[in-house]
Amino acid sequence: MAAITQPVPPGIGCRCSGIAIVLRFAPGLLAFPAAAEAHAFVQPYTLPVPFGLYLYGAAATLLLTFFVLAYFARPATAAVASGARAEISASGEVPAWLVDALRAFAVGLLLLTLVAGSYGTRNPDANIGMTLFWVIFVLGFTYATALVGDVFAIVNPWRTIAEWLRLSSGTRARIVYPRWLGYWPALVAYVALIWIELFALPRPSTLASALLVYSAVTLGGVWLFGATAWFRNGEVFSVLLRLVGLLAPLEYRVAGNGVVTVRRRAWFGGVLEGKADRMSLLLFVLFMLSSTTFDGMHETLVWMNVFWKYLVHAFQPLWGTDLIASQRMLERWYVAFQRAGLVLSPFLYFAVYMIVIACVKAVTRTPMTLRELALAFAFTVIPIAIVYNMAHYWTLLLLQIPKLPYLVADPFGAGWTLPSLGSPPAEPPPLDMAPIWNTEVMLIVGGHLVGVYLAHRVALRVFNSRRAAFVSQVPMLVLMMTYTVLGLWVISQPLALER
After folding, report:
1. Which own/partner pairs from 167-175 qualify as long-range (CB within 8 Å, at least 24 positions apart)?
2. Hey, how many other C-beta atoms are within 10 angstroms of the C-beta on 337?
């Protein structure tokens, strides 16, 4: 996350003419902290072929995959998606001592993050808490979950603390979790998490305070609603990582006596075995995608032009003609515009998604309701959201992971050193932009190919007819191609402001 450092993702080149526009309309913006520059074009990169060819190539790949699936796929091949579980072979139990050790280790990392944020250095680059949370946990652990499954359900430090405090017993639940509440608590917490990442200053103390508040809310939710209900619906990391874990070939089950069993399944089998059960969970999935899109857009020249060139002009009767006199008011409006963009992003994606689902219903003439169709295809967006997130942030892992040994040796930034490590490098080594750009393109296109595949398998389950499945996937294909083109376009946009 940009709250730690400035990674170096690829771009088509740094076009800075838009800065003049911002300087003309709002010189005071330069005084505002840019808390998230995860896509700053520190190094310009000229693409080997015109950018349009990348878009055409990506769209053509999705189109070809769609027709191949439509030709070869049969309802019989979708046995997993027809309601029967895929053949899963038990791999044995996780040793109890290992589970206890991992849980204690997770609690220790949470406590270390809190202590480092509260009492360590204020320098975010030298404070281990920032790297542990934003880089290792929010990024690295999420990507690992897509490969090894939802380990967090076992080692969740808040669940462990709740058990230690005897808050998690079912008999201690004060209120039955309301059905209408759904996944809204988790979604609100998710929005707050991204809000802090993008709009709060990168201070270790801010992170520690936010985690303390979040810990209190989580333990309070467990005390009020019980552990099972709260960690399934209300705890953001449990919901997020459970969704990501659906992509993995491993599944973990915790028995009533605490025994953890590991089972093998097909890749993406979790997506095909279930569906969203609430519209709030669909919104959560869409926010996984829209939040990354917003992060990639909210400090670009294109995004700033929306406000400083068009909205300001449209609302001129409200602020007058004197730019200098109205500068402070316009700056406040721009801050509100930024925040509103984040909060409204999942609802915009939801509107587009529902339009596509309405087209699916129209062309198939299915008796299923819009809600049923929307929930049935909701999880097919997950691989797109994950690879899009990786395309935006994986360079941060490349830049930050080499610093981890030095942070472990000196977690509080007190000047501690280990002779074997030597001094940390002043600046990270430059990244080769060509493989970074190509990797991001492959990630985005690959994720959308998986999305097309999963959507077709779900369609075979829902409609149980090759023709109906084919027809239903035409609107979904348009949606996938739109996501692909938008994703590639966003990562190619330069920032309007650079440090």
Report:
1. 167/219, 167/222, 167/223, 167/227, 168/222, 168/226, 168/227, 169/227, 170/226, 170/227, 170/228, 172/223, 172/226, 173/224, 173/225, 173/226, 173/229, 174/223, 174/224, 174/225, 175/224, 175/225
2. 18
Extract the tokens encoding 385. Answer: 């959201």
* d(C-alpha 263, C-alpha 251), whole Å: 5
Instruction: Indicate the pTM of the whole model.
Output: 0.86
In contact, 81 and 458? CB cutoff 8 Å: yes
Q: How far is CA 275 from the centre of its chain?
A: 19
Nearest Cα to Cα of residue 467 among 180, 116, 71: 71
How confident is the model over 213-253, as pLDDT tens digits? 999 999 999 999 999 999 999 999 999 999 999 999 999 98
The Cα 102–Cα 342 span in angstroms is 35
- pLDDT band per the 50, 70, 90 thresholds, residue 280: very high
Of 102, 99, 108, residue with least CA distance to 132: 108
- Region for residue 312 given its phi and psi (left: phi exceeds 0; alpha: psi -120 to 50; beta: otherwise): alpha
How many residues belong to the chain? 499
SS3 of residue 439 by DSSP = helix
Q: Maximum CA pair distance of the chain?
A: 72
Of the pLDDT bands very low, low, confident and very high (cuts 50, 70, 90), residue 45 is low
Per-residue buried b or exposed e for 164-179, using 16+ beta carbons within 10 Å of the residue's own CB:
eeebbeeeebeeebee
Dig out the tokens for 181 from the structure: 């509440």
The string over 144-162, giving b where at least 16 C-beta atoms fall within 10 Å of a residue's C-beta and e elsewhere, is bbbeebbbbbbbbbbbbbb
- What residues contact residue 446 under an 8 Å CB cut-off, 6+ apart? 387
- CA angle, 125 then 335 then 318, to 5°: 165
Other Cβ atoms within 10 Å of 432 Cβ, number? 12
Q: What is the DSSP letter of 118?
A: H
Of 207-221, 244-258, 417-431, least confident by mean pLDDT is 417-431
Q: Cα 355 to chain center, whole Å?
A: 23
Q: Give, for 261, the enclosing helix (H) or strand (E).
A: strand 260-264
Q: What is the CA radius of gyration of the chain?
A: 24
CA angle 448, 461, 228 (to 5 degrees): 80
